[in-house]
Backbone:
């Protein structure tokens, strides 16, 4: 499973990255969390508000810092 | 009612008097009033915002006649939240959808300038008339600014290859009302926890101003065109939140700071922010960035001077 956090580097983006890492640890799934800061890469997903959470190439959330539990729930279904 | 309770608390129970009593009373009264206002306002606005997303906004603006493009870009700028880290993806995302550069800039000017929470606070502190004039003026400035940029034919100043959109984001999930209420609650807690210290600090300074500076004192020094320029210039270097600025300028206005100078200072603090410029500098030329800053400054100064004249 591949989890990407899209964000240009603001406080909200960092908060989402931390929550995502915690969620992965909690859900005991094998997943890597990658922070994507390159604008070219971010734009491939057509996301307009940061930060965004991408799991296996699908945008699951944008413009919002999800809580750890919310991410755990999203990962269950992914 | 709340005014009387807080008076009783400070003057009778705490047995304070004189200047100290005034400061404490002003601080307690204003803190609770303003924090309560912010809680309600942010919650309501966050709830409404769950119905809007940037993709939908873009589709809407894209399909319009040029004039309506500017108008809608300006209005959406008022109602959508804006975080400076979204400036670049949003900017390029709009251009990718073949929305003209001018319309894109209209949104970029309008979004930080017309902060929806600040507008709601202004209504409760300064009244509907001034708030309405302020918002209308903000919309007109952003529309004219965008139009002006489109006339200058600056498309080549965007230092980034604009490719057409490849894969569409999937944001189609439907939310129930209960989910929207919960999202709004989380957003409210998030906003309050981030800004409450700044708001309390602004109110504390406001309380000192309220008690120590005689009415009319500030007016003597600021009731001129020069004051607006100083306000706008000092706003560039203050990176703060519009919500925290409102209680501070409320106290200054009560002591005679002309309303136009106060509002132009607030607009400058929010719109002319160094972090956002540094972000934009990554994708647009220095020339375009300078033009953008000049247009926004000109608009804000015009607002300050004309509001001082009208109100």
Residues:
């Amino acid at each position: 499973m591949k989890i990407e956090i899209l964000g240009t580097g603001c406080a909200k983006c960092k908060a989402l990255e931390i929550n995502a890492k915690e969620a992965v640890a909690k859900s005991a799934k094998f997943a890597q969390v990658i922070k994507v800061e390159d604008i070219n890469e971010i734009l491939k997903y057509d996301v307009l508000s940061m930060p965004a959470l991408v799991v296996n190439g699908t945008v699951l959330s944008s413009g919002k810092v999800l809580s750890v539990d919310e991410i755990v729930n999203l990962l269950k279904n992914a | 009612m709340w005014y009387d309770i807080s008076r009783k608390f400070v003057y009778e129970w705490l047995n304070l008097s004189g200047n100290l009593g005034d400061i404490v009373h002003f601080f307690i009264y204003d803190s609770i009033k303003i924090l309560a206002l912010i809680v309600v306002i942010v919650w309501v606005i966050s709830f409404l915002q769950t119905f809007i997303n940037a993709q939908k906004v873009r589709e809407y603006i894209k399909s319009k006649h040029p004039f309506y493009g500017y108008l809608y870009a300006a209005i959406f700028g008022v109602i959508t939240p804006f975080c400076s880290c979204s400036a670049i993806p949003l900017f390029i995302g709009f251009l990718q959808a073949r929305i003209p550069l001018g319309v894109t800039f209209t949104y970029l000017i309008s979004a930080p300038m017309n902060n929806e929470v600040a507008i709601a606070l202004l209504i409760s502190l300064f009244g509907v008339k001034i708030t309405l004039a302020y918002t209308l003026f903000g919309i007109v400035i952003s529309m004219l600014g965008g139009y002006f940029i489109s006339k200058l034919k600056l498309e080549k100043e965007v230092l980034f290859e604009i490719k057409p959109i490849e894969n569409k984001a999937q944001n189609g999930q439907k939310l129930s009302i209960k989910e929207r209420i919960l999202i709004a609650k989380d957003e409210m807690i998030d906003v309050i926890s981030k800004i409450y210290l700044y708001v309390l600090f602004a109110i504390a300074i406001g309380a000192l101003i309220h008690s120590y500076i005689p009415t009319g004192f500030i007016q003597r020094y600021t009731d001129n065109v020069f004051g607006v320029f100083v306000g706008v210039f000092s706003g560039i270097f203050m990176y703060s939140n519009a919500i925290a600025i409102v209680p501070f300028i409320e106290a200054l206005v009560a002591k005679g700071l002309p309303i136009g100078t106060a509002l132009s200072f607030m607009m400058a603090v929010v719109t002319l922010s160094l972090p956002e410029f540094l972000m934009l500098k990554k994708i647009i030329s220095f020339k375009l960035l300078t033009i953008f800053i000049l247009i926004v400054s000109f608009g804000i100064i015009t607002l300050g001077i004309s509001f001082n004249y009208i109100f």
Observations:
- The domain at 2-76 of chain A is CATH 3.40.30.10 (Glutaredoxin).
